[in-house]
Amino acid sequence: MPRVLQEVVFVDGVRTPFGKAGEKGMYAQTRADDLVIKCIRELLRRHPELPKERVEEVAVAATTQIGDQGLTLGRLAALLSGLPKSTPGYSVDRMCAGAMTAVTNVASSIGVGAIDIAVAGGVEHMGRHPMGEGVDPNPRIVAERLVDESALVMGQTAENLHDRFPELTKARCDAFAVASQRKLAAAYEAGKVQPDLVEVATRHAEKGWGLATVDEPPRPGTTLEELAALKTPFRPHGNVTAGNAAGLNDGATACILASEAAATELGLPVRMRLVSYAFVGVEPEVMGIGPVPATEKALAKAGLTIEDIGLFELNEAFAVQVLAFLDHFGIADDDARVNPWGGAIATGHPLASSGVRLMTQLARHFEEHPEVRYGVTAMCIGIGMGGSVIWENPHHAAYGTDGTEA
Prior knowledge:
Elements: E1 8-15, E2 19-20, H1 32-46, E3 58-61, H2 73-80, E4 89-92, H3 98-111, E5 117-125, H4 140-143, H5 154-164, H6 170-189, E6 200-204, E7 208-212, H7 224-228, E8 249-259, H8 260-266, E9 272-281, H9 291-302, E10 309-314, H10 319-328, H11 344-347, H12 354-368, E11 374-381, E12 385-392
Parallel strand pairs: 3-4, 3-5, 10-11
Antiparallel strand pairs: 1-8, 1-9, 2-8, 5-8, 6-7, 9-12, 11-12
Helix pairs in contact: 1-2
């Protein structure tokens, strides 16, 4: 029998404030799974029009799937969030693009009609579970020269990107990082970030109880002079520093996706429509270039060009990889369409959770910019990959047409 494909929409997304990893961070003694459970509960609280039994899947990403990030986290998070025992769930691992992949996985299930409504998200507690904890990479990947040893250290891959594109100077990266800090501070000052944050009660054996209400990593007021003086830990006299790269962070995200028909039936808000997505592999030694071919593929699948994109949410794992993307597509370093509220350099990057942060912020930007029809969320991915998702703005005059411009 013929199958009818469904339009997939982004209903809503939330996140915890992001914390600094380590014993001094605000989530030092808070469980990782509790962070993502808090996000799912908040989504359900914000949308009483969504019957819990209508959530048909929960996909939760984590890069290091052990301890309180293990044991099929999506299923456990579903149970602990108050969803019915009939709601299944699973875990996802695509390193930094874990939450992005959780979204595209459940979106694909919705698209073919297997389900109508799902929750997707991610969590990373890098204080409890440093990247690479407990892993045992097959030595043949280096011994047989499939990759250079630097491919297994993300900071070194960023330095490799500087080597490949010498025009991506440290000065440009530092300037981009300062702008990221400035834009996030301005967004906080204007009250733009706070609506998407879920307050989290924290507990520490020595510090007692606390309440996480804002991101911990930002360094507002950072100057170029301060960044110029930082050490380059991945290479003597290198280019990558703690100031022009995302830090080690803890945090979680979650979102609701639905078929457009189900959203209409239940009265759920439609904040974005999924247009296309792509994941690609690149040379692991320069994994930061991954968003470039991923976005090219996603654009081709959608029948669009980069000129059709009016807003970009690019994950700032390293300033150099964002600049590589911008240079490739002929976009200025300070283009107002790119990361309007700053990015991971300022906000933080709890690995597998970050994809949904990009999407939630793009949905907010769409509300403010009805003149923009299409936006992109894209990120580089460890071990040489890139991911990109193209979204359509429901506030645009042409939304819901056959795809031709209004």
